[in-house]
């Protein structure tokens, strides 16, 4: 049995949680916050969530967990079989993580914990997110899925990561990224109609409503 460790307010946690649901792999959840405590570090070397535990061994990093799940249960597939199409899905996952989630995340202390906005981060993060959005606009197919006509790991990743970016840009810049990327609002809407996404998203929204500062 796989156990998934992390918290419902974490976009990465929900991203990884969606994957076994989609692949119909049984798992259990263990609630744990990211931290530098030894009991977390021994499982997730940077103290981040999520990680999964399989037969007493821990595995961290979302895209690595995606690959592992695909290998242990190839069906239903969440990567295309064609090697180039598969690499394009990985490219989307990476662009969203490195060039959208990461710059938005610089505001996490303000958005999640109510800290004052750092003026340097305020000036630096927005242009970085704009670059990420331009990259995503070039790569996203919205056909209707983000990598084309099949639901893939790129959708598993994009839904929660982009939601997280929007939470930050809306709060810090009064900027809804749906207004900057044609097709994104419709994409969010469509994805929310997928039962697996609706289930995980509903739990995340409820947890965020309780957790986020007013
Ligand atoms: N690269 C990691 C990122 C995971 C991540 O940043 N998780 C956040 C929660 S959404 C976290 O644990 N943050 C605490 C920290 O960075 O110390 C992955 O792909 O899983």
- Determine and state the CATH class of the largest domain: Mainly Alpha
Derived structural class: alpha+beta
The whole-angstrom Rg is 17 Å
Secondary structure: number of strands: 4
- Please write the string of helix (H) and strand (E) elements: EHEHEEHHHHHHH
Strand content: 5-15%
**Largest beta-sheet details:** 4 strands, mixed
Count of folded domains: 2
Spatial order of the strands forming the largest sheet: 2-1-3-4
**And the CATH topology of the largest domain?**
Glutathione S-transferase Yfyf (Class Pi), Chain A, domain 2
Name a few traits of the molecule.
alpha+beta, Glutathione S-transferase Yfyf (Class Pi), Chain A, domain 2, four-stranded mixed sheet, binds glutathione
Task: Please provide a written account of the structure.
The chain is an alpha+beta fold and 214 residues long. It folds into two domains: 2-72, Glutaredoxin (3-Layer(aba) Sandwich); 83-211, Glutathione S-transferase Yfyf (Class Pi), Chain A, domain 2. It contains nine helices and four strands. It has helices at residues 11-23, 38-41, 62-72, 83-105, 108-113, 119-139, 153-173, 184-192, 195-211, and strands at residues 2-6, 27-31, 51-54, 57-60. It has a four-stranded mixed sheet with strand order 2-1-3-4, with helices on one face. The radius of gyration is 17 Å and the shape is globular. Bound molecules: glutathione. Glutathione is lined by residues 10-12, 34, 47-49, 61-62. Glutathione (GSH) binds at residues 10-12, 34, 47-49, 61-62.
């Amino acid at each position: 049995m796989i156990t998934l460790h992390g918290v419902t307010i974490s976009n990465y946690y929900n991203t990884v949680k969606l994957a076994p649901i989609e692949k119909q792999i049984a798992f259990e959840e263990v609630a744990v916050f990211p931290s530098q405590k030894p009991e977390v570090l021994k499982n997730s070397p940077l103290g981040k969530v999520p990680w999964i535990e399989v037969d007493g061994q821990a595995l961290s990093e979302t895209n690595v967990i995606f690959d592992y799940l695909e290998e242990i249960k190839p069906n239903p597939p969440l990567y295309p079989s064609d090697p180039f199409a598969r690499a394009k899905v990985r490219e989307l996952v990476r662009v969203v993580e490195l060039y959208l989630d990461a710059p938005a995340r610089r505001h996490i202390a303000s958005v999640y914990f109510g800290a004052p906005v750092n003026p340097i981060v305020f000036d630096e993060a927005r242009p970085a997110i704009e670059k990420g959005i331009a990259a995503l606009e070039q790569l996203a197919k919205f056909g209707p899925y983000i990598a084309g006509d099949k639901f893939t790991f790129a959708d598993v990743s994009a839904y929660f990561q982009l939601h997280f970016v929007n939470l930050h840009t809306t709060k810090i810049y009064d900027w809804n990224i749906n207004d900057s990327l044609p097709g994104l609002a419709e994409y969010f809407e469509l994805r929310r109609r997928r039962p697996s996404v609706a289930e995980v998203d509903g739990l995340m929204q409820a947890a965020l409503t309780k957790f986020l500062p007013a």
